[in-house]
Write a structure and sequence with these properties.
It is a single chain. The radius of gyration is 16 Å and the shape is globular. By secondary structure, it is α+β, with helices and mostly antiparallel strands. The strands form 2 sheets. A 3-stranded antiparallel β-sheet has the order 3-4-5, with no helix packed on it. It has a domain of 99 residues. Helix content is 38%, strand content 13%. The N and C termini lie far apart (47 Å). The longest helix is centred in the first third of the chain and has 20 residues. The relative contact order is 0.12.
Length: 143
């Protein structure tokens, strides 16, 4: 199935923590089993060179993506791959890689500053201190 998905140009948006919420009325072991299967599926997809885009099922899961980032890392994605799933990969997928997804001259100047080093702990990607869009501050954790 993975080969057919890759050949069709599919990208995977894993939403791994979804199973903790979909199975919230089940035993913890059942929740862990569903999450474990999803993590293994993502691991196989990533090891095959499959494209991963970050996304959530808002309304079905919490708004805090820390656990999702940690599960992606547990599936074998390193910091650079997780960051790419948030930045360069969606820009390329949407045909916008010439103006979005990177910090470079002529690009939109969209930038997020994290409180912590996500290369050491990928959960720091969710600890947003500031966000700039087109070079303008649109969010500050300080208020």
């Amino acid at each position: 199935m993975i080969g057919a998905m890759k050949q069709a140009g599919a990208a995977l948006i894993p939403t791994l923590q979804l199973w903790k919420y979909q199975k919230r009325h089940d035993r913890l072991s059942a929740q862990d089993e569903f999450v474990g299967v999803a993590v293994q599926q993502l691991r196989r997809w990533v090891s095959s060179g499959g494209v991963v885009l970050f996304g959530t099922d808002l309304g079905a899961v919490e708004y805090d993506p820390r656990d999702e980032y940690a599960l992606m890392a547990h599936a074998g994605m390193d910091f650079r791959q997780i960051l790419a799933s948030l930045t360069t990969t969606p820009a390329a997928r949407l045909g916008e890689s010439e103006r979005l997804g990177r910090i470079a001259d002529g690009f939109e100047a969209d930038l997020t500053i994290c409180d912590g080093d996500p290369a050491r702990d990928v959960r720091a990607l969710a600890a947003v201190r500031y966000t700039l869009r087109s070079g303008k501050l649109i969010y500050s954790a300080a208020g």
